Amino acid sequence: MKPMGFLPVALLFLGSMAASEEANSFRDQQLQYPRVRAAAKEKDHVLRRRCEEKKISYPPRAILFRAFKREARLELWALHNTGDSYILIDTYAICATSGVLGPKRKFGDVQVPEGFYELDWFNPQSNFFLSLHISYPNSADRILGSHANPGGDIFLHGNCVTIGCIPITDEGIKEVYWLAVEVHAAGQRHIPIEIFPGELTEDGFKSLARSHPNQRELLAFWSNLREGFDLFEKDHRALKVTIAGDGRYRLNEERSSRESR
What separation in angstroms does the CA of 183 have from each of 59, 64, 186? Predict the structure, then answer.
């Protein structure tokens, strides 16, 4: 007779094997593409060294991105262990833009979205070298934007051209894309990207208010985004983001399970 604990342990072992095989399958699948192989060859040691310098495991347990439209800056943050604070790993110049400050609300408005999103799928054969899809429109966008056609196909990509996306250089996207592959293969299924009109510090918000007088709806939206900006600035921990029926983001200090593997 087998011990009572054999079956649960065996199932746990088989589950771990399946998860490992799935991770290896994803990584191997990505490496079938020449641009991903080039990114791995050229950037893996760079990213590994950068993490070592910050005393972060490689690949990190989780990563997240913050984009600031006015400052034309993309930040890459990484996590060593669940429950730790995120550490800033690097910044990348956003090298082209379209539209004006403010959220995307409809197809064809050439706006870059603003809000709380995820990088939810990988495009290794992008027209813009490599690209990661941004989960626009989210529920807030569908509530507050055009109900007929809010638009879509928004990416973080290379090639320094854009209509509504977030472009960085090809060298930058090689790093960002390959690290996203590595953390996804290691278990992070949800990679947050937070997109702001600019740095929403007190001075930054006042500057936006001065440059957008009498735009109460827009300033209320930015004030809502600022809640998330302030919470992350407080302790550099990932946010739990939910969306209310009126399209408002609900943000609090209860941390999201997105960090866990």
Answer: 6, 11, 5
Tokens read off for 207:
């500057």
Picking from 30, 236, 23, the residue whose alpha carbon sits closest to that of residue 132 is 30
Candidates 136, 98, 132, 94; CA nearest to 115 is 136
pLDDT digits (tens, 9 = 90+) for 36-92: 999 999 999 999 999 999 999 999 999 999 999 999 999 999 999 888 899 999 999
In a domain, 96, yes or no: yes
Q: How many CA atoms lie within 13 A of 89 on its CB side?
A: 28
How far apart are the C-alpha atoms of 163 and 154, rounded to whole Å? 9
Residue with token string 């590595």: 182
Q: Does residue 162 sit within a domain?
A: yes
Q: Is residue 3 part of a domain?
A: no
User: pTM, whole model, 2 decimals?
Assistant: 0.88
Identify the CATH number of the domain in which residue 65 sits: 2.40.440.10
Phi/psi for 78 (5° steps) reads -135, 155
Phi, psi torsion values for 74, nearest 5 degrees: -115, 125
∠ CA 50-119-131 to the nearest 5 degrees? 80
**Domain limits at 38?**
10-198
CA 249 – CA 177 distance, rounded (Å): 28
**115 backbone φψ class: left, alpha, beta (φ>0; ψ -120 to 50):** left
Longest CA–CA separation in the chain, Å: 78
**Residue 167, in any domain of the structure:** yes
Number of domains in the chain: 1
pLDDT for 2 equals: 40
